[in-house]
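Input (structure):
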């Protein structure tokens, strides 16, 4: 009986692993758009600019 239980567990584990692998393989993957990249780049550049300005103490000149 113990041997049958182990075989059953192995069969179930194998089937479950196969099922999970298939689900992962068939999962729909959404690719980022160019707008996503541009927003990320813009945020990065702005944060770098703000850090540079704050560390150098340069203030924005007033026009007028």
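Output (sequence):
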């Amino acid at each position: 009986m113990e041997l049958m239980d182990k075989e059953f567990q192995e069969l179930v584990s194998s089937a479950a692993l196969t099922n999970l692998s298939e689900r992962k393989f068939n999962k729909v993957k959404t690719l980022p758009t160019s707008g996503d990249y541009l927003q990320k780049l813009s945020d990065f550049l702005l944060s770098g600019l703000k850090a540079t300005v704050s560390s150098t103490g340069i203030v924005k000149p007033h026009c007028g």
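Notes: The longest helix spans residues 2-26. The helical segments are 2-26, 34-56.
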